[in-house]
Structures are given as structure tokens and as C-alpha cells.
TrEMBL record:
SUPFAM superfamilies: alpha/beta-Hydrolases. This is Mitochondrial integral membrane protein-like protein. It comes from the Eukaryota. The chain crosses the membrane at residues 87-109, 121-143, 150-172, 178-196, 225-245. InterPro entries: AB_hydrolase_fold (IPR029058), DUF2417 (IPR019431). Residues 25-58 have a biased composition (Basic and acidic residues). Pfam families: DUF2417. Keywords: Membrane, Transmembrane, Transmembrane helix. Residues 1-70 are annotated as: Disordered.
Length: 559
């Protein structure tokens, strides 16, 4: 990038030549002021990458052979290398923005080939970081600073650590997929590019100042100092963000070591896997196969406490066998492509049961929103489902409560900042939260996967899901034994909830029992009375299912 003047010497008539004489020292202010008498036409606006290159054969106007340091012609843009890097930076910014838009859309609707088994918030966060770095170097392109290069280098090192974590931990690598890997690699490359660009501009600035003014300028204007300060503050913020993301990745790597009971089963054309497990062995009573209980979680991962109640019922001999699974995005299951409705979850459960070799008869036990999934599943397996038990279930007419736009926006915003993991990191560092707490326990709601699952439920609650469950009710078998257990607290404080609970108790003509458990919250099993009532009614439901099955078999024999 170096350049030289060509020509002869200066004669007695002070004719300018192409080789400047020894420069006058720039140490005092008087000397600098004396060189401000160049033509007003030279004081044009500051040059940029589109400004015409300085004619290197044009002689400087001052008697010492140099331009004034404040002359707009003294600019690193005089170098083709600097201009090319500016154009490339803008090109990279455009490419990154287009990728950012694609990832934003994929949160709501997964384009073919772009679905990841994870939440999709991490790759979006890395792309936001890339845009931030490129914007800083673009806006403050002409004001290079050593501090800026140092802070960006720290970002690059942290991103390199993130790359290693994602690639080295199999579970994280599987969840992030090629989209997440490409996003973090691109973020790292862009950080390195920003360092290189700033260094080249600094070198070009120094070279042009030495060539055109006689020495490299060490002073900065107030505008330049403000630019350096703002750019440094922004990159320091980026450092904090990457540190938090790296900590969250490390915590995810730790959580990936948590062992689970059961297996992950690929569903939906092997696009994602769901966790499925069974407890107990298939037995027979009076020559008939005992029904298997299929558990469906409510608004929280099933393993947290709902499955503990089922295990207690199993140990007490109330049931001989039960199976449970995690809906997509919950606990050990992967996230499903968007959009994802309750009916799609029911289909995923059907496929998981088939691949696991499970056959009916089944009794469906569900809670809250999970009752929507169970009802759809039951309507699609009328012959295999011999009983339905719903615990404080959500009515289809109340789906608008989880499908409100305000709730959806909050879930999206919470998901966007979830890669920072501030609350999860604080819980691990200061409250001794365990892997179990984060994967399926009290802090599971903070994970990106869980937030994505909740967002998916929100987006289609009033459309796909409501239509699916309405259709399910119209084709539900009327002789299927039914048990409804409601929360006394919910019923007392919400009259509409009470009316809808009563309506659900009429879902079939074979109601075994509808109980309202006093002092029980929405999670009825959290109270001793709630657990006792649930176990008692489940035992009655098992007996009723045998009766229905016997009657059905008798009808078949008569035909």
C-alpha cells in the first residue's frame, strides 16, 4: 500500500516538483495554522469509499510540500485496499442481515432444511452478535482504535470457545445442528474480520498521513474521541453478552450429562426425537390384558412431580404399568418444527408408541393443557383407549388464554434473551440449582427449548389446536369411562373455569366421577388430598375400563 512521489528537484522559481523537500516540523501550533491557507475549494466534505481517489501526481499546495493535517484529502480512503475492505464489510453485513431475517422467520415457521432440534434462539443470538460487530466497524470505519481491536479480539476468543463447546458436546451439537454451528462459525469469522479491517484502516491512515502531511497524526478531534468511546463501550457490552452465552453453553454441556429413564425416539420423519419411558410389566387379569396408563403433562415437565404420583400408584398396586413421554421441547425431548399444534403432538405420541412396540388398551391420564393433547390422541385411537382421566383440564373455549398475542410476544422476547442465561446462571452459582432443576424441575421454564415449546403452543392455540380438539370431541366415543378431578382453588376464583370443568365432565356419557378437591391448586397432586382422590378415582377408572372392554368384546362375538 506504500506510495512514492516521482519527479526532479525544486528550481529557483519555486516550481513544484513531485518529490517534496524536508518537511517543516509540526511541533508548534503556529506552524500548523500557517498551513491552513490552502484554497477553500479543498475543504469539501469528508471523503468516503465513493470519493474519487486522490491524484497522486498532484503536487501539494503548501510551500513545505505537504498538505494540512485537517485537509479532507488526507484519508485512508485514498487506498484501494481500504475501500475494498469497506465494500466487503458492507457485503458481509447484508449477508448476515439476510441470514438474521431467515432465522427470525424460522422461529415461527421452519423453512425446509433449517429446523434444528434445539430452540433456535442460540443461532439467532450469534447472528445478532455478528450484525452488532459489523455495524460497529461500518459506522466507525474511519476511526480505528487499538482498544477496539483488543475488545473485538476478546470477543473472537470467546466465540472460539463457544465453537469448541458446540462441536465437542454431542448433545449440544445435535440440538444446534448445522444452522447453529454455521452461525457461531460465521460470528467468529466476522469478529476476526473486524479486527483485520480496523488494523488495515489504521495502517492506511498512518501511511497516508505520512505521505501527505509528513508524519502520522497523533491527535484526535472531539468527534473522533466520542466515536472511539462509543465503539469501545459497544464492544465491551458484546464481551459481556458472549461471556454469558459461553457460561450458558457450559451449563448446557453439564446438563447434557444428566441420565434419563427411557429412550429418545425419532418421530416425524426423523426430524426430532421425543423422550419416552415405561414403568412396570404388562399383566393380565381374568384373561384380559391390563390397561397401560399413558401420562400427559400439563404446563410443566411431567417428571417434576406428576410422574412421582403415578409411580406411587404403581407401587401401591393401583396400576400395573404406566408410560410417559415429554412433549416436544419439554425436558429430554427435542423441539419440533414450527408451527406445532396439539394434534401434531398427539401424532408424535402415536408414532413413539408404535416405534416402542406399545399396544393398547390405554387409559389416558392428563393435566392442564396436556388434556387437549390426550383428547385428540384418544379420538384417533378409539378402540385402544378404554378410559380417560383429566386433572383440572383446560377447556378448548379457554385456549385463548394461552394463545393471546401479548403472551406470545413476552415468550418471544424471553426466548431471544434466553441464551444469556442470566437467571439460570445466577441460580446455579448462588442458589445451588441442580441439573434436575434445570432440565425438568423448578427452573425448566427458563430453558430456550421450553420457551420455544410454549411459544409454539401459543401461536396456534386459537387456530390449529382449537379446530383439532373441537373435531376430537365430536368423534369421541360416548361410552368411554371418564374421570375429571378439578382444583378447588381454580373453581372458586374463576367461575368460567368452573363452568368449563362441568362441561368437560359431560364429554362422554360414562362419567365415573367429577371431583373438586378443596384447597388444591391447579397442580392437584401437590396436596395430599389431591393425590388420594386421584389415586382412588384412577383405581375406579381401571375397573370401569375392564367392564367397557368386556362389553365391547361381547358385542364383537355376537356380530
Amino acid at each position: 500500500m506504500s506510495s512514492m512521489w516521482k519527479g526532479g528537484n525544486k528550481d529557483n522559481n519555486d516550481q513544484l516538483t513531485s518529490e517534496p523537500p524536508n518537511p517543516i516540523p509540526h511541533d508548534d501550533g503556529a506552524s500548523r495554522s500557517s498551513r491552513r491557507s490552502y484554497e477553500p475549494s479543498r475543504r469539501s466534505e469528508e471523503p468516503n469509499e465513493r470519493t474519487r481517489l486522490l491524484d497522486r501526481q498532484r503536487p501539494p499546495p503548501n510551500q513545505d510540500g505537504y498538505l494540512d493535517p485537517d485537509d479532507p484529502a488526507v484519508s485512508p480512503y485514498n487506498l484501494w485496499t481500504v475501500r475494498a475492505m469497506r465494500y466487503l464489510t458492507i457485503l458481509f453485513l447484508v449477508i448476515t442481515f439476510l441470514w438474521w431475517v431467515l432465522l427470525l422467520v424460522s422461529i415461527f415457521v421452519s423453512p425446509p432444511g433449517l429446523h434444528t432440534r434445539g430452540s433456535g434462539f442460540f443461532d439467532f443470538a450469534y447472528t445478532c452478535l455478528s450484525i452488532g460487530n459489523l455495524l460497529v466497524v461500518t459506522v466507525f470505519f474511519i476511526t480505528p482504535a487499538k482498544g477496539l481491536r483488543i475488545t473485538t479480539a476478546i470477543i473472537a476468543v470467546l466465540l472460539a470457545i463457544d465453537m469448541i463447546l458446540i462441536l465437542a458436546v454431542p448433545r449440544i451439537r445435535l440440538e444446534e445442528g448445522w444452522v447453529g454451528i454455521a452461525s457461531v462459525v460465521w460470528a467468529f469469522i466476522m469478529a476476526v474480520w473486524c479486527i483485520l479491517t480496523d488494523r488495515v484502516v489504521a495502517y492506511g491512515k498512518k501511511e497516508e498521513e505520512e505521505r501527505l502531511t509528513g508524519r502520522a497524526e497523533t491527535r484526535r478531534t472531539l468527534k473522533e474521541w466520542v466515536a472511539v468511546l462509543v465503539a469501545t463501550i459497544l464492544t465491551v457490552i458484546f464481551i459481556v453478552i458472549v461471556i454469558l452465552m459461553t457460561g450458558t453453553l457450559g451449563m448446557r454441556a453439564r446438563d447434557a450429562t444428566l441420565k434419563m429413564y427411557g429412550d429418545r425416539i425419532l418421530v416425524d420423519g426423523d426430524k426430532y426425537a421425543v423422550h419416552f419411558a415405561c414403568v412396570g410389566n404388562a399383566t393380565e387379569t381374568d384373561g384380559s390384558k391390563d390397561p397401560t396408563i399413558i401420562l400427559e403433562a400439563g404446563e410443566e415437565p411431567l417428571e417434576y412431580d406428576f410422574e412421582h404420583w403415578a409411580y406411587s400408584a404403581y407401587k401401591n398396586g393401583t396400576i400395573s404399568r404406566y408410560c410417559y413421554w415429554d412433549r416436544p421441547g419439554y425436558a429430554f425431548s427435542d423441539n419440533a418444527p414450527s408451527p406445532h399444534s396439539a394434534g401434531m403432538s398427539a401424532d408424535a405420541l402415536s408414532e413413539a408408541l408404535a416405534r416402542a412396540g406399545e399396544e393398547g388398551p390405554w387409559i389416558l391420564v392428563s393435566a392442564g393443557y396436556g388434556s387437549i393433547v390426550s383428547r385428540i390422541f384418544g379420538s384417533r385411537h378409539l378402540k385402544q383407549v378404554t378410559g380417560i382421566m383429566m386433572i383440572d383440564p383446560l377447556h378448548e373455549d379457554l385456549l385463548h388464554r394461552i394463545g393471546s398475542p401479548g403472551r406470545g410476544f413476552l415468550l418471544w422476547a424471553w426466548g431471544i434473551i434466553s441464551p444469556l442465561g442470566t437467571v439460570r446462571l445466577a441460580g446455579a452459582l448462588f442458589k445451588a440449582r441442580t441439573r434436575e432443576d434445570r432440565v425438568y424441575g423448578r427452573n425448566a421454564y427458563q430453558s430456550g427449548k421450553f420457551i420455544k415449546a410454549q411459544l409454539q403452543e401459543n401461536l396456534v392455540a386459537n387456530s390449529f389446536t382449537k379446530n383439532e380438539v373441537s373435531s376430537a370431541r365430536s368423534i369421541q366415543s360416548t361410552n368411554t369411562p371418564l374421570v375429571v378431578v378439578s382444583s378447588g382453588i381454580q373453581v372458586r376464583k374463576d367461575s368460567e373455569w368452573e363452568r368449563k370443568q362441568k362441561d368437560l365432565s359431560t364429554m362422554t356419557d360414562n362419567l365415573v366421577s367429577w371431583d373438586v378437591v378443596n384447597k388444591a391448586p391447579h397442580q392437584v397432586w401437590d396436596t395430599l388430598d389431591g393425590r388420594n382422590v386421584m389415586e382412588k378415582r384412577l383405581k375406579q377408572l381401571v375397573k370401569a375400563s375392564f367392564k367397557v372392554k368386556t362389553e365391547a368384546e361381547a358385542e364383537v362375538e355376537e356380530e
